[in-house]
Amino acid sequence: MNVYVIETHLLDGDQDIAVFDKKPKAERYVESHELHGKPEVVKVPVRGYQSNPDEVYTASNYDAARDIQFFEGVYGNQKEAEIAAGPNGLVLHRSIRH
């Protein structure tokens, strides 16, 4: 399964804002909201087992040298997202916007 993530490029980091089931919905969100940084809609596969088709977990790695989070990917379950994010990373539980 693929989802569309709104990713912003801010302070040399990549951060996820929201997850959508369709690209046009994500693009409308970007157009209708004032977002910081440079927003981009990115098609991303959901990795791992997903028990609820309406929910995912986004993982971001932490770069300690620059003190910035970098969006890493979308996972179907929290455990795999935590492994991908690493010990100081960030995992967010997200509802897929339909």
Topology:
Elements: E1 2-10, E2 13-20, H1 23-32, E3 38-47, E4 55-63, E5 68-75, H2 78-85, E6 90-95
Keywords, separated by commas or semicolons:
single chain; 98 residues; alpha+beta; six-stranded mixed β-sheet; 2 helices; 51% strand
Description of the structure:
It is built from two helices and six strands. The chain has a six-stranded mixed β-sheet. The relative contact order is 0.26. The protein is flat and about 35 Å long. The mean pLDDT is 94. By secondary structure, the protein is an alpha+beta fold. The chain has one domain (2-95). The chain has helices at 23-32, 78-85; strands spanning 2-10, 13-20, 38-47, 55-63, 68-75, 90-95. A hairpin with a 2-residue loop joins strand 1 (2-10) and strand 2 (13-20). It is 18% helix and 51% strand.
Nutshell version of this structure?
The chain contains two helices and six strands; from the N terminus they run E-E-H-E-E-E-H-E. The chain has 98 residues and is α+β, with helices and mostly antiparallel strands.
